[in-house]
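User: Here's a protein and a ligand (2-acetamido-2-deoxy-beta-D-glucopyranose). What would the complex look like?
Assistant: Let me lay out the input and then the predicted complex.
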Amino acid sequence: MTNDLTSESVQTALKNAAVCVMLLPRFLLAAVMLWLLDFLCIRRKVLTKMRESDLSSPDDPPLCVSDSNKMFTLESLRAVWYGHKLDFFKTARLGGAAPNTEVVPLDSASRRGAQRILDYARGRRPLILNFGSSFQRVARQYADIADSLLVYIEEAHPSDGWVSSDAPYQIPRHRCLEDRLRAAELMNREAQGSAVVVDTMENSSNSAYGAYFERLYILKDEKVVYQGGRGPEGYRVSELRDWLERYRSDLEASNAETVVHV
Ligand SMILES: *[C@@H]1O[C@H](CO)[C@@H](O)[C@H](O)[C@H]1NC(C)=O
C-alpha cells in the first residue's frame, strides 16, 4: 500500500519533470522575446514589422503595446508559463471530438440547469467558439451559415496580475462566478449578436481548449474543424474568415449539385 503510494508519487513527479523539460524551450524563447520587447526601439520595430507583414489583415485585432507597459516581469512570465501549460494539456485537437465543457450563460433567465458548449450548436451548422474579444462584423457576415459563441474566460491582464494599460478595462482576477459574470457583462455591452457565456470557476473550457490568452475555434458535428493558434499572435480572425469562406463555397457547390440531380 505505502509502496504503491510512493511509486505513484514518484510517477507524478517524473511526469511533472518531463512536462517541465518539454515546455522549457518554448517558455525560454517566449521569455527572451518579452525581455527584448522591453527595449523600446526593438518593440517599436517588431510591432511595425508585424503590422506591415503580409500575414496581418484588417480583420485581425492590431497588436498594440504601449511604451509604458513592461513585458518582462514575474507576473508576465507566470502568465506565459500558465498559457503554455494549458496549451500542452488541452484536450481539443483538430479533427477530434469537441470537449463539451460546462459554461454559464450571461442572462440569468437561461441559467437554469447546466449548460454546455455543444448546447449552442444548432444542427449541423458550424459553431464559432471565440475565447477573446468580440468580432461582430465577421460574426454578422456569416450568420446565415454559422453561429457564434463568445466564451469569457479568466482575464489575460488582470489589474492584480500582468497589468496592461492597453486593456479596455482594468478588471481584477475573478474570485467568484459573480465577479466573472459582472466582468463579462461589461464586455458584453459591445458584443451584440453572438451568445455570451462565461467559463466556470474551475476554468474547464479554458483548460480543455487551451484558450488562454485568447483563441478561436470552429466546431461542427461535435468535432473540432478549425483550431486557431494561441493568442495574441495566433489569434487570427482572417484565418477564421478563410475557413468560413471555403465552407460557404463548398455549401453552394453541393447545393447546386443537388438542384441539378433532382
Ligand atoms: C480559475 O481562474 C481564476 C482566475 O480568474 C482563479 O482565481 C482560479 O483559481 C482558477 N481555478 C482553478 C481551479 O484553477
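Summary: The chain has one domain: 2-261.
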